[in-house]
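wait is this the right file?? whatever heres the structure
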């Protein structure tokens, strides 16, 4: 029997993307279809989304939805069966889904994503649109009130609720007076519901009112139940530990395939690793790096934030440069870190290339052109870029946390001897350990080319496709539905 799922996501690749959530929400539906799960994807009608779906059919109407009229449109695009919340007063804004032009959160984010969750609950419960589903999967805080609306205003048909946490650092915390405008009862301001240190937290509602809570790697699932990794949620999550699980993300093997990647100067596969040299040369030229074929070229793509440990990378870089390494960096985020990497590029012309901004194509070219890909995250729910690196034969150098710990096999002597290593790991949060791992990698690259090539081939042979995760999600959804029946 096919099972129906409403996936509620505030970003979905390729319609709109700021990070890994979009990749997951965009790729999982096709993988779930193979497992007999039919996915409807619900997304806010940002300008980019509406222009992609055009004047699609209206399936539900709201004369007044938190301050304005709204409709839900249904469309098919990029292989996705989409429901789009067309609410101009909430989403017809240029730029980032979450941030205004000043780089700060939109001041009405609570209402924007509260309305999104409200409508998700109506659709999933069959109250609007005639589209009732078996299960809803609410991704992150932006979708997390769905379970609260289903609880406080139960429709006749209540779907099972799964909340998926892609990053516990974003908890959707807002002033408690917003409960009224959000259409939630005053008694939702309770420690058993939305109340969170005197405010309300959307993500807390997502945990409290979900039947199951998933996150995006087994290690992160364990970490978020500890005081070090729980960010205030550890007690709540540990109290529901039997309902918490980690399902490792996959990657889209068609979009991230070095043999067929249209962004690359020279497509290649594991059988012709030497072809990577052409991509390295192109990347060096692109970023103004010296065209030295055997310089150890370190790549980095991602948000420039403390979470990602980019301050540590900036600090240890000068020593590596002194030993002949190069850096190819793409990212944006914290203005101070943007400045720091800009300054490093100015200070080390030909050695540090830093592109501040967002550039999908350059992200692919860095994965294909760098020798090693560094991710010194302090915490990392899953991380996708290290999996892209594995697939592209760029050797990942990662801190031993969350999904990084689960996806990279450290090149310790035993793993090298057994021929199973794929990269380098080091303890998170330590400058010394990061520097040590980078030097370990640099030496192996220079002195043991056969072992280095083995790391590359092992990485490229790693199965990171979505099929494994899709099976685990489908089993979890089926178990929930069976429990209800
Ligand atoms: P997170 O979701 O925490 O930002 P992930 O590693 O899970 O980190 O996913 C990040 C995704 O966003 C990857 O697909 C990565 O390639 C992409 N990405 C991040 N920053 C940039 C950028 N500046 N330009 C292009 N792609 C980027």
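ok assuming it is, sequence goes like this
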């Amino acid at each position: 029997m096919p099972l129906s799922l409403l996936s509620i996501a505030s970003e979905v690749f390729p319609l709109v993307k700021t990070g890994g959530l979009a990749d997951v929400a965009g790729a999982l539906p096709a993988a779930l279809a193979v497992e007999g799960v039919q996915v409807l994807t619900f997304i806010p009608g940002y300008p980019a989304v509406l222009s992609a779906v055009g004047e699609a059919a209206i399936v539900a109407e709201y004369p007044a939805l938190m301050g304005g009229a709204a409709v839900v449109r249904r469309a098919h695009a990029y292989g996705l069966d989409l429901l789009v919340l067309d609410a101009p007063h909430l989403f017809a804004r240029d730029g980032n889904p979450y941030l205004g032009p000043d780089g700060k959160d939109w001041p009405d984010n609570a209402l924007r994503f509260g309305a999104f969750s409200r409508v998700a609950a109506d659709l999933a419960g069959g109250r609007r649109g005639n589209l009732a589903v078996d299960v809803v999967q609410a991704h992150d805080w932006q979708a997390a009130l769905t379970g609260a609306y289903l609880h406080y205003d139960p429709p006749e048909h209540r779907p099972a609720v799964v909340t998926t946490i892609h990053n516990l650092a974003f908890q959707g915390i807002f002033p408690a007076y917003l409960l009224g405008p959000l259409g939630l009862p005053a008694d939702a301001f309770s420690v058993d519901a939305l109340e969170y240190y005197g405010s309300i937290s959307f993500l807390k509602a997502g945990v409290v009112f979900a039947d199951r809570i998933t996150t995006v790697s087994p290690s992160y699932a364990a970490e978020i139940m500890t005081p070090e990794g729980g960010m205030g949620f550890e007690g709540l999550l540990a109290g529901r530990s039997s309902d918490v699980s980690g399902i490792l993300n996959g990657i889209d093997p068609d979009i991230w395939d070095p043999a067929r990647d249209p962004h690359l100067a020279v497509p290649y596969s594991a059988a012709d690793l030497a072809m990577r040299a052409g991509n390295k040369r192109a990347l060096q030229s692109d970023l103004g790096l010296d065209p030295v074929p055997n310089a150890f070229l370190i790549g980095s793509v991602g948000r420039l934030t403390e979470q990602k440990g980019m301050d540590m990378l900036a600090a240890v870089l000068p020593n590596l440069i002194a030993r002949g390494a190069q850096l190819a960096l793409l990212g944006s985020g914290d203005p101070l870190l943007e400045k720091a990497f800009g300054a490093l590029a100015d200070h080390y012309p030909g050695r540090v290339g830093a592109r501040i901004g967002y550039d999908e194509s350059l992200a692919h070219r860095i994965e294909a052109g760098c020798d090693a890909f560094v991710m010194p995250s302090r915490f990392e729910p899953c991380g996708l870029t290290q999996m892209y690196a594995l697939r592209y034969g760029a050797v990942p150098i990662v801190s031993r946390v969350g999904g990084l710990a689960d996806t990279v096999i450290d090149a310790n002597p035993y793993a090298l001897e057994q021929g199973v290593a794929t990269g380098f790991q080091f303890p998170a949060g330590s400058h010394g350990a990061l520097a040590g791992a980078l030097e370990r990698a640099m030496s192996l690259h220079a002195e043991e080319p056969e072992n280095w090539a083995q790391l590359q081939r092992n990485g490229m042979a790693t199965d990171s496709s979505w099929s494994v995760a899709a099976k685990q999600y489908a089993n979890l959804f089926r178990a929930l539905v069976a429990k209800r029946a």
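The first strand starts at residue 3 and ends at 8. so i think its the right one actually
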